[in-house]
Amino acid sequence: MRPEPAPTNTTEQRVDLVLARVLSKAASVPPRLADAMRYAVLGGGKRIRPRLVYASGRLAGAPIEVLDHAAAAVELIHAYSLIHDDLPAMDDDDLRRGRPTVHVAFDEATAILAGDALQALAFESACADGVEAAVSLRWVRLLARAAGAGGMVGGQVLDLEGETRRLSADELEQLHRKKTGALLHASVAMGAAAGNLPGGKADALDRFGTEIGLAFQIHDDVLDATIATEALGKRQGADADRGKSTYVTVLGLETARKEADRRMASALDELACFGTEAAELVELAKFIVSRRR
Amino acid sequence: MRPEPAPTNTTEQRVDLVLARVLSKAASVPPRLADAMRYAVLGGGKRIRPRLVYASGRLAGAPIEVLDHAAAAVELIHAYSLIHDDLPAMDDDDLRRGRPTVHVAFDEATAILAGDALQALAFESACADGVEAAVSLRWVRLLARAAGAGGMVGGQVLDLEGETRRLSADELEQLHRKKTGALLHASVAMGAAAGNLPGGKADALDRFGTEIGLAFQIHDDVLDATIATEALGKRQGADADRGKSTYVTVLGLETARKEADRRMASALDELACFGTEAAELVELAKFIVSRRR
């Protein structure tokens, strides 16, 4: 007897279907570019950002068909950022999720352009037919701020600067609030924006998004320092090898683990006001800091 | 006595002010990233795309303060595309408008990231406060399609493929409809979308946007083949040297000149239904195919 699929699998499969649909809708795309985009987006991953959109959006009472567009948008931004982060001029990684990175599987120009096209497609997805204009507008604003110079891109700049000098714990938090936290927070906020929550609960969900983003990154640094290359899908200790400041190199392994736990507890506290309705989001939060990539 | 500035100067100055304002509004941006973004965006250029937004928008009766946001958006997309096109993995140009390109003046990682951030900022600008939700939504859709895989990015992919084989005249038109034409067309369409034109005139303006885009590119190829490096701001014949197919290499210089004239006449025909009200757009169209960069 085959085991029942875990409840989260259903959402992962939905995300893959939604992403494949969005990618196939773009008309008149040169085949090599379309291939690189599909390779990057449909190459697996835990789909944490889309799952945050769905869980937060359902908690806010939003229809799942509307949430599909936001889920696709955040994952397309994530996928583009991975392609560009892996480039030779940046982190110079040739392995991602156990497969050659896009610039290795294709070439550097195609990788840069596939990333560029995925960012545009994310904004197109946020404005899809069937989404209220006011909701699309809030999504585009949230996404643009999270992805841009004050968010994810700014965080990557700080990350590269962190290779040349040791960052303080405060600087590291600032870096990760931008680089990883901004898009995770946007995922939660975009889900909430599609629904209709009273102000107090909306604020609590917003703070949850911030805390879970930090818990995620600290856990990621712990994983990078401790998990074998095969399980991780990239070289073990790759970040530390490059001289990058990570939570582990700055705080030490045990303190980093405790800090991840503290952020996680703080995130879950914010969900208390929802009672049992937040069960899906609680489960997802716990998955985030228990995952082995 | 100093000469009066030409009428077009006023719009150019407005564009610079609007762009500087948009760039300064982004909060908490790492200084090096902010510098690279400003270097790329405020480094001159004829601002043809914003000027198309203003001229088309005024013809459609849109307020200039609303058009500012669309004008900034199209120029930010244009600026990001130039940064990425100039990268070593793409056209590998070290000179742009007579100055070092961004990856030369800064470094390659900063250039990639500044381009990425400018794309996000373009979409943020299209959703600025003070623009009706329905207009912003049309702008984001127009911009995302023009910039993405079926538009500008797809055109750049075809352009790079054109270095390895000689393109036919039809393929060349397809390439330039995407690479240059899509964003020029979007500039005209975004201006029009902010106003209120009856269907027939809106369609004519839309076709004008398509034709002027092709006239622009053919003229650009003619310039590349004939103008000295100093006046051009980049190396003379740089495209042809790389073995790129251009309108000049495919059609010959004289036929390319005639084709630019034909497209220009076709563009102006579309404006006939507006009578003298289209004077600004007619003047701008003529400037586009007479310019010496």
Quaternary class: homodimer
**Unreliable residue runs of chain A:** 1-8
Q: Main interface pair?
A: A-B, 52 and 52 residues
| Overall radius of gyration of chain A | 18 Å
The main sheet of chain A comes to: 2 strands, antiparallel
Class derived from helix and strand content of chain A: mainly alpha
Strand content of chain A: under 5%
Q: What is the CA–CA distance across the termini of chain A?
A: 27 Å
Q: What order do the SSEs of chain A take from the amino end to the carboxyl end, as H and E?
A: HHHHEEHHHHHHHHHHH
Explained architecture:
2 copies of one chain form a homodimer. The first copy, chain A, is mostly helical and 293 residues long. In chain A, 71% of the residues lie in helices and 1% in strands. In chain A, strands 1-2 form a two-stranded antiparallel sheet. In chain A, helix 1 packs across helix 4, helix 3 packs antiparallel against helix 4 and helix 8 runs antiparallel to helix 9. At the A-B interface, helix 2, helix 6, helix 7 and helix 8 of A face helix 2, helix 6, helix 7 and helix 8 of B.
